[in-house]
Amino acid sequence: MRRGLKDDFLAYVKRNPHANTREIAAALDCHEAYVRSTARRQGIRLASNGRRGRPVAAAPKFSRPRLRIKEFRGTPEQYDALARKVALVDLEHRDCRWPVGDPRDTDFGFCGHIKEPGKPYCAHHQRRSEGGGTPAGRSAHRVQA
User: Where are the domains of the chain?
Assistant: First the structure.
Protein backbone atom coordinates (compact mmCIF):
# COMPACT_ATOMS: atom_id res chain seq x y z
CA MET A 1 0.00 0.00 0.00
CA ARG A 2 1.48 3.30 -0.97
CA ARG A 3 1.78 6.17 1.46
CA GLY A 4 -0.84 8.87 1.29
CA LEU A 5 -3.44 6.71 -0.48
CA LYS A 6 -6.09 7.62 2.07
CA ASP A 7 -5.41 11.33 1.48
CA ASP A 8 -5.58 10.76 -2.30
CA PHE A 9 -8.85 8.91 -1.81
CA LEU A 10 -10.37 11.73 0.25
CA ALA A 11 -9.22 14.36 -2.26
CA TYR A 12 -10.61 12.37 -5.22
CA VAL A 13 -13.98 11.89 -3.54
CA LYS A 14 -14.11 15.60 -2.76
CA ARG A 15 -13.42 16.47 -6.42
CA ASN A 16 -15.79 13.76 -7.79
CA PRO A 17 -18.64 13.27 -5.31
CA HIS A 18 -20.66 11.09 -7.72
CA ALA A 19 -17.83 8.66 -8.56
CA ASN A 20 -18.49 5.01 -7.87
CA THR A 21 -16.17 2.42 -6.34
CA ARG A 22 -14.87 1.13 -9.66
CA GLU A 23 -14.00 4.61 -10.98
CA ILE A 24 -12.19 5.58 -7.76
CA ALA A 25 -10.21 2.33 -7.69
CA ALA A 26 -9.16 2.78 -11.33
CA ALA A 27 -8.14 6.40 -10.77
CA LEU A 28 -6.09 5.60 -7.64
CA ASP A 29 -4.75 2.28 -8.98
CA CYS A 30 -5.97 0.25 -6.00
CA HIS A 31 -8.49 -2.48 -5.25
CA GLU A 32 -12.21 -1.80 -5.02
CA ALA A 33 -12.23 -3.49 -1.62
CA TYR A 34 -9.81 -0.85 -0.32
CA VAL A 35 -12.06 1.91 -1.65
CA ARG A 36 -15.16 0.39 -0.04
CA SER A 37 -13.51 -0.20 3.33
CA THR A 38 -11.90 3.25 3.43
CA ALA A 39 -15.21 4.89 2.53
CA ARG A 40 -16.97 2.91 5.25
CA ARG A 41 -14.37 3.85 7.87
CA GLN A 42 -14.54 7.52 6.86
CA GLY A 43 -18.35 7.52 6.85
CA ILE A 44 -18.55 8.33 3.12
CA ARG A 45 -21.43 6.93 1.07
CA LEU A 46 -20.28 6.12 -2.46
CA ALA A 47 -22.37 5.99 -5.61
CA SER A 48 -23.61 2.60 -6.78
CA ASN A 49 -21.63 0.59 -9.33
CA GLY A 50 -24.81 0.18 -11.35
CA ARG A 51 -26.05 -2.93 -9.59
CA ARG A 52 -29.67 -2.97 -8.70
CA GLY A 53 -30.46 -3.71 -5.08
CA ARG A 54 -33.29 -5.83 -3.81
CA PRO A 55 -36.66 -4.16 -3.82
CA VAL A 56 -37.90 -3.12 -0.41
CA ALA A 57 -41.31 -4.75 -0.71
CA ALA A 58 -40.98 -7.68 -3.10
CA ALA A 59 -44.06 -9.10 -4.73
CA PRO A 60 -45.05 -12.60 -3.63
CA LYS A 61 -43.15 -15.24 -5.58
CA PHE A 62 -46.07 -17.59 -6.09
CA SER A 63 -49.72 -16.92 -6.72
CA ARG A 64 -50.92 -19.91 -4.70
CA PRO A 65 -50.43 -19.87 -0.92
CA ARG A 66 -48.12 -22.32 0.80
CA LEU A 67 -50.30 -24.76 2.62
CA ARG A 68 -49.52 -27.13 5.44
CA ILE A 69 -52.27 -29.67 5.08
CA LYS A 70 -52.26 -32.20 7.91
CA GLU A 71 -55.51 -34.02 7.32
CA PHE A 72 -57.00 -33.99 3.85
CA ARG A 73 -60.34 -35.66 3.38
CA GLY A 74 -60.68 -36.47 -0.29
CA THR A 75 -59.18 -38.45 -3.11
CA PRO A 76 -55.50 -38.22 -4.04
CA GLU A 77 -56.53 -36.63 -7.33
CA GLN A 78 -58.38 -33.86 -5.48
CA TYR A 79 -55.31 -33.21 -3.34
CA ASP A 80 -53.05 -33.09 -6.39
CA ALA A 81 -55.41 -30.50 -7.89
CA LEU A 82 -54.40 -28.22 -4.97
CA ALA A 83 -50.71 -28.62 -5.82
CA ARG A 84 -48.73 -25.54 -6.76
CA LYS A 85 -46.98 -27.42 -9.62
CA VAL A 86 -43.60 -25.88 -8.91
CA ALA A 87 -40.91 -26.38 -11.54
CA LEU A 88 -37.82 -28.32 -10.52
CA VAL A 89 -35.58 -25.26 -10.70
CA ASP A 90 -37.98 -23.25 -8.51
CA LEU A 91 -38.24 -25.78 -5.65
CA GLU A 92 -37.10 -24.42 -2.32
CA HIS A 93 -35.78 -26.45 0.60
CA ARG A 94 -39.19 -26.43 2.36
CA ASP A 95 -41.22 -27.57 -0.68
CA CYS A 96 -42.79 -31.01 -1.10
CA ARG A 97 -41.06 -32.93 -3.90
CA TRP A 98 -44.01 -35.13 -4.88
CA PRO A 99 -44.30 -35.12 -8.70
CA VAL A 100 -47.70 -34.03 -10.00
CA GLY A 101 -48.79 -34.87 -13.53
CA ASP A 102 -47.02 -36.48 -16.44
CA PRO A 103 -43.36 -35.42 -16.87
CA ARG A 104 -43.95 -35.25 -20.64
CA ASP A 105 -46.67 -32.59 -20.23
CA THR A 106 -45.96 -28.88 -20.13
CA ASP A 107 -47.87 -28.37 -16.88
CA PHE A 108 -45.79 -30.96 -14.96
CA GLY A 109 -44.49 -29.84 -11.59
CA PHE A 110 -44.03 -30.75 -7.96
CA CYS A 111 -46.53 -30.43 -5.11
CA GLY A 112 -44.82 -27.48 -3.43
CA HIS A 113 -46.72 -27.56 -0.13
CA ILE A 114 -44.66 -27.27 3.04
CA LYS A 115 -42.94 -30.59 3.68
CA GLU A 116 -42.67 -32.46 6.94
CA PRO A 117 -39.42 -31.85 8.88
CA GLY A 118 -36.77 -34.35 7.80
CA LYS A 119 -38.97 -35.79 5.05
CA PRO A 120 -39.10 -35.06 1.31
CA TYR A 121 -42.90 -34.75 1.15
CA CYS A 122 -45.80 -32.91 2.79
CA ALA A 123 -47.89 -34.84 5.33
CA HIS A 124 -50.40 -36.10 2.76
CA HIS A 125 -47.81 -37.32 0.28
CA GLN A 126 -45.66 -38.76 3.06
CA ARG A 127 -48.60 -40.96 4.10
CA ARG A 128 -49.18 -41.94 0.47
CA SER A 129 -45.53 -42.86 0.01
CA GLU A 130 -45.49 -45.07 3.12
CA GLY A 131 -48.73 -46.85 2.33
CA GLY A 132 -51.10 -48.41 4.83
CA GLY A 133 -48.54 -50.46 6.74
CA THR A 134 -49.51 -53.80 5.24
CA PRO A 135 -48.53 -55.22 1.85
CA ALA A 136 -52.11 -54.71 0.66
CA GLY A 137 -52.13 -51.11 1.87
CA ARG A 138 -48.78 -50.31 0.28
CA SER A 139 -49.98 -51.57 -3.10
CA ALA A 140 -53.34 -49.77 -2.91
CA HIS A 141 -52.28 -46.64 -4.85
CA ARG A 142 -50.59 -48.26 -7.83
CA VAL A 143 -50.84 -46.29 -11.04
CA GLN A 144 -52.62 -48.05 -13.86
CA ALA A 145 -51.00 -47.65 -17.28
Answer: 5-42, 76-138
